[in-house]
Amino acid sequence: MKKIAKKSAAPGSHTFTYLTNHSHVLVALDTDPELRVRDLAALVGITERAVQRILADLEEGGAIKVERIGRRNRYRIQRSGRLRHPLEDHCTIGGLLSWVHAGGRSR
Q1: pTM listed for this prediction
Q2: Which of 2, 4, 7, 90 has the most crowded CB, counting CB atoms within 10 A?
Q3: Residue 79 included in any domain
Q4: Nearest residue to 30 via CA among 82, 91, 98, 88
């Protein structure tokens, strides 16, 4: 598993994030498509059950395809898929991920 540094909020700062947990899961999977649910939960800061619901949402919505390899899953992100909100439906999932990774983290 590739390491993704988790930064904590500075004391006294706001604790909200600009991206959703669904986006956070996509970013993590784009970094390592074989992350386990447990690892995703730790990276995103949510429960394993919440990650399972998000993965189901992403698969049902066509954002990811799940490939079973032995006892593990490999997640393929459908980068050409469009974002779902009307304000950003002109953007692709791949474009969002490229924008996030352009900040310095490599895939």
Answers
A1: 0.83
A2: 4
A3: yes
A4: 98
To which H or E segment does residue 65 belong?
strand 64-69
Helices (H), 1-107: 21-31, 37-44, 48-60, 93-101
Domain count, the chain: 1
Higher-confidence position of 63 and 9: 63
pLDDT at 75 exceeding the cut of 80 = yes
d(CA 52, CA 58): 10
* Domain span holding position 74: 21-101
CATH code, 93: 1.10.10.10
Question: What are the angstrom distances between the C-alpha of 29 and each of 10, 22, 75, 91?
Answer: 26, 11, 7, 19
Rounded Cα distance between 55 and 51, Å, is: 6
Q: Contact, 25 vs 40, CB < 8 A?
A: yes
For residue 51, being part of any structural domain is answered with: yes
Tell me the pLDDT tens digit for each residue of 3-21.
565 555 555 566 888 999 9
